[in-house]
Amino acid sequence: MSEVIVFGMPQSGYVRAVRLACEEKGADHVVKPMMPAEMRDAGRHPFGRMPAMEHEGTRLFESSAILRYLDRTFEGPALEPADPRQALLSVQWESAIHDYLIPTLGRRYILQYIFPKGPDGEPDRAVIEAALVEARGQLAVLSEALEAAGPFFFGAGPAIPDLLLTPTLAYLEAMPEGPELLGAAPGLRGLLEAMKARESFQRTVPPPLTEAA
Ligand SMILES: N[C@@H](CCC(=O)N[C@@H](CS)C(=O)NCC(=O)O)C(=O)O
């Protein structure tokens, strides 16, 4: 099969989730770096976000759709549980990650440290503290779910929610409060450690986030 083309900056956690899936599924891929405005202007993502994908005439945007495409097209280990009810739980956790954890932890916490918006170009402590209050609760819920199955959401290998979570957890670990937050979330720490041991993780380490500015 021909190469999967992944559009977006490799520093993006969502782009990395798609790359992790390519690696897990054994899909050759190449990243075409593009900033959000270019994603829209080039017709890759009508909402000007990343990632998008093209493979053998199929063009997709939105990470959950792309991850399912990869799962259903390539032969590597399944990224979705076969049991239909378990598969619905995957959708549930994906939505929670997209709608709650990534906006809180990614946008309001991690990006505040990387691209500070506070007075004098420092991180805005009020934004960070407010995000931390919400993030602690969200991390606890996800950690508990992972502790029950562990180290992955379903079965012996990573599934779609694991791949969506991993890049944000890897960024979190390097943040000032990261070790403390992960220390209080054993399920998430277990997932991150399990993913770090995989070739897919090692082959998708992004360049420094500041280089995407
Ligand atoms: N729902 C989208 C979210 C994509 C998303 O928010 N991507 C971020 C990068 S990690 C982005 O494009 N940010 C650019 C911006 O908000 O302008 C998906 O799952 O693919």
Structure description:
It is built from nine helices and four strands. Helix 1 crosses helix 6 (160-173) and helix 6 (160-173) crosses helix 8. The longest helix is centred in the middle third of the chain and has 31 residues, at 84-114. The chain has helices at residues 13-25, 36-41, 63-73, 84-114, 125-149, 160-173, 178-183, 186-196, 199-202; strands at 4-7, 29-32, 52-55, 58-61. Strand 1, helix 1 and strand 2 (29-32) form a beta-alpha-beta unit. The protein has a four-stranded mixed β-sheet, covered by helices on one side. It binds glutathione. Glutathione (GSH) binds at residues 12-14, 36, 49-51, 62-64, 98.
Shape: globular
How is the CATH topology of the largest domain named? Glutathione S-transferase Yfyf (Class Pi), Chain A, domain 2
> How many extended strands?
4
Q: Give the terminus-to-terminus CA distance.
A: 34 Å
Q: Indicate how many domains the architecture comprises.
A: 2
